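User: Reviewer 2 asked us to show a designed sequence for the structure in our supplementary figure. I'm pasting the structure tokens here. Could you produce the per-position amino acids so we can include them in the response letter?
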């Protein structure tokens, strides 16, 4: 009997530790929040919305944000209380300089970086060994 109670308690603890759903919020085209954890998505960079250098960058940044939200919604349904497992985050071991987690995002086997890059809403962006490439100038004045 004692063994059965311990097993039930262990299973209950696992269920509590593994949420069945998560709240997902899209901050911009390459940053999401999952249950209050800010996650900078890796492998790509999108135009800025808040600190845009020009209106065309801001407009493209909002398009990238909307497309990421659409992709997440297609994979997860409503982003408030999205089911666990609808997306895969391959996390890097250390956060970025702003304290955000870093992760590659795939949904239903599709790499979100590749999708947004192929649609012209993002540029490839990988920081190998802590060295990041120069970011694109989205205002049309060269790279």
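Assistant: Here is a per-position design you can include in the supplement:
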């Amino acid at each position: 009997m004692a063994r059965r109670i311990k097993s039930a308690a262990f299973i209950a603890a696992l269920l509590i530790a593994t949420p069945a759903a998560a709240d997902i919020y899209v901050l911009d085209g390459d940053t999401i929040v999952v249950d209050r954890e800010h996650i900078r998505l890796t492998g790509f960079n999108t135009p800025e919305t808040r600190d845009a250098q020009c209106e065309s960058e801001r407009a493209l940044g909002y398009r990238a944000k909307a497309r990421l939200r659409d992709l997440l919604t297609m994979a997860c349904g409503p982003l408030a209380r999205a089911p666990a497992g609808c997306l895969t985050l391959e996390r890097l071991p250390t956060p970025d300089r702003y304290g955000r987690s870093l992760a590659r995002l795939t949904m239903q086997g599709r790499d979100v970086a590749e999708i947004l890059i192929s649609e012209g809403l993002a540029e490839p962006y990988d920081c190998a060994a802590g060295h990041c490439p120069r970011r694109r100038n989205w205002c049309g004045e060269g790279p």
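For the response letter, you might also mention the following. Residues 21-125 form a domain with the OB fold (Dihydrolipoamide Acetyltransferase, E2P) fold (CATH 2.40.50.90). Helices lie at 2-17, 55-76, 112-118.
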